[in-house]
Amino acid sequence: MEKKYSDKETAIDYMVDSSSEEDRLSPSTTTTMKEQQTSTLTLYGLLGRVREGFQSLRGAPTELYKAYVLKFLDSYSYFSMSIIFTLFLSDDFGFTDLQAGTLYGLWGALITLYGLMIGPLMDNLGVCRSLQIGFAVSLIARLIIVFTTSRTMLLINLLGALPLGNCLGIPVLTTGIRRYTRESARGFAFGLFYVVMNVAALLSGPIVDILTIRYQNPAVQKEDGGDEIDKEPTWALSSYRAIIITGIFANLIACVITFTMREIKVDDHQEGGPTPLIPSDTDSAAAAPSPQVVNFAPKEGSLRQIMIETYSSPSFRRFILVCLITLNVRMIFRHLDATLPKYMMREFGEGVPKGTIYAINPALIIILVPLVTAATTNVDPLVMIHIGSYVSAASVFALAFSTSIWACIVFVTVLSIGEALWSPRLNDYAMNICPEGREGTFMALSTAPLFLAKLPVGMLSGILLEKYCPEEGERHSQKMWLIIGLLTLSSPVFLTVFWKYISYREPTEPKEPIPSTELRRLQLSSFV
What is the pLDDT of residue 282? Predict the structure, then answer.
């Protein structure tokens, strides 16, 4: 008996269902699918799939493009500050490596904590009001941080207002992408969303280099022996403050844009649906009717009701396990911000182009993500997370074997390839399993691995730098990166160990987990 498959079913679903003798497709159908896969993986086929992806966004509401602009502005403000975060705290306020690393970790951990606490509130407020509040709070916090000389005021905003504003922006924008796109275009839309973020990261690297290498930092006062004077910091337009000011301008523009957005969604199901506001253009790449843009009423509920509804879902529990398992592999991105800049400056000198080396990551992501998304659009997100996490973990060992600029370049390059394979698919995975109207709660939790990792990695960064890569004295940097590499490798290993559980399907999906033999076959067929 031959089964019919809807567009929603992935290649993984087909492989699981087709594993039984009764439901195998005919040889001619299988041959046709293989030919389509082969043509897709040629360069011409990949470019064609990318073109179709852009065509699938035709007719989308203007809110989709505003969300992309907001993502760019928010990402620039975030990345430009995160690159110089520990340097700013040490040079402008005199914090030690351990203190600066711990504060960096607390900043990220509090974004997660606040996000978990107000995730249900975001569902009640809706996308527009959450963005308006979030960007306004972030703007005020950044202004105070850049102009204060008081450590108390710095810490209040660094650990209070700024992470509160951040948590109202990052997950809400992801929810907006889901609301503003049709289901068939959502995978490409999330890939493009990730590319936009990395365009901002690419821009932030050279700007950091220009302002830190060419502009002398007047805030650092040192004695003749080279030791910094231990006294209350005085205000000066240091290179680090100048970088934060560029982020303030981006934040200000974002605030203005949020007040031009509407609370709407794209409706794929027109029959019996709400009255459309704007008919979308016909998608030339799809035979399905064009979706309609309709008003969206936030799904309100009490905190208790939302939490019970969320935590009672078995798919949510598997989702949380995936988030926790991937915590260590996400930590490597925090080492890219917190550990690598100080490591390079201490091993290779003040003039090392740390921002340019950092910019290799977003540059490769911009190129690779559209191609990888096009080539693997029908591959289950969990499979891509599994493969990519091994690649990302392997990148660290380049620095464990060599202390050189080339090792830094290899590290960032291999890390970027792994990131392109798996990181965009985490959002895709979260959006596939979360119910509509509860995206705020789900996405607050899906960003938890990225930001929850900051607390341990911030403290670990400071401890490892002081012990193995001090500013003065003998260094053993390769041992430091070996420790980091072994910790990172635990994520893909645990994904393999728990694969049977995390890949299990609910009754609405195939009931069997993705078999390990089928997983290996799909992994090979995706890249051969």
Answer: 39
Mean pLDDT by 10 residues, the chain (528 residues): 36 35 40 47 70 78 91 92 89 88 85 76 83 94 93 92 84 82 77 87 87 66 44 77 94 94 75 42 43 60 67 78 86 85 90 86 88 79 91 96 95 94 79 68 62 72 91 92 95 94 68 43 37
Per the CB < 8 A criterion, the answer to whether 318 and 502 are in contact is yes
The reported pTM is 0.68
Q: How many domains does the chain have?
A: 1
The pLDDT score that the predictor gives to residue 439 is 66
For residue 15, being part of any structural domain is answered with no
CATH number, residue 200: 1.20.1250.20
Token look-up 């096009």 returns 374
Owning domain of residue 186: 53-527
What is the distance of C-alpha 416 from the center of its chain? 12
Separation of alpha carbons 236 and 147, rounded Å: 9
At residue 523, the pLDDT reads: 40
How far is Cα 401 from Cα 404, in angstroms, rounded to an integer? Answer: 10
From CA 152, how far away is CA 233, in angstroms rounded? 12
SS3 of 479-526: HHHHHHHHHHHHHHHHHHHCHHHHCCCCCCCCCCCCCHHHHHHHHHHH
CA distance 362 to 300: 38
Indicate the SS3 state at residue 292.
strand
Helix, strand, or coil (residue 277): coil
In a domain, 2, yes or no: no
For 125, what's the count of Cα atoms within 13 Å in the CB-facing half-sphere?
20
> Burial, 244: exposed, middle or buried (Cβ in 10 Å; 0-12, 13-18, 19+)?
buried
**Do the beta carbons of residue 103 and residue 89 sit within 8 Å?**
yes
Residue 13 within any structural domain of the chain = no
Q: 453 to each of 112, 148, 230, 357, 521, how far by Cα in Å?
A: 10, 28, 31, 23, 32
Give residue-wise pLDDT tens across range 138-149. Answer: 999 999 999 998
The half-sphere exposure of 441 on its side-chain side, counting CA atoms within 13 A, is 28
* pLDDT of the residue at 123: 75
Q: Which of 166, 84, 87, 156 is nearest to 122 (CA)?
A: 166
Rounded distance, CA 349 to CA 213, Å?
11
Is 313 a domain residue? yes
Nearest to 165 by CA among 111, 99, 117, 127: 111
Contacts of 467 (CB under 8 A, 6+ apart): 480
DSSP 347: H
Write out pLDDT tens, residues 332-367.
Answer: 887 888 899 889 999 998 888 888 898 899 899 888
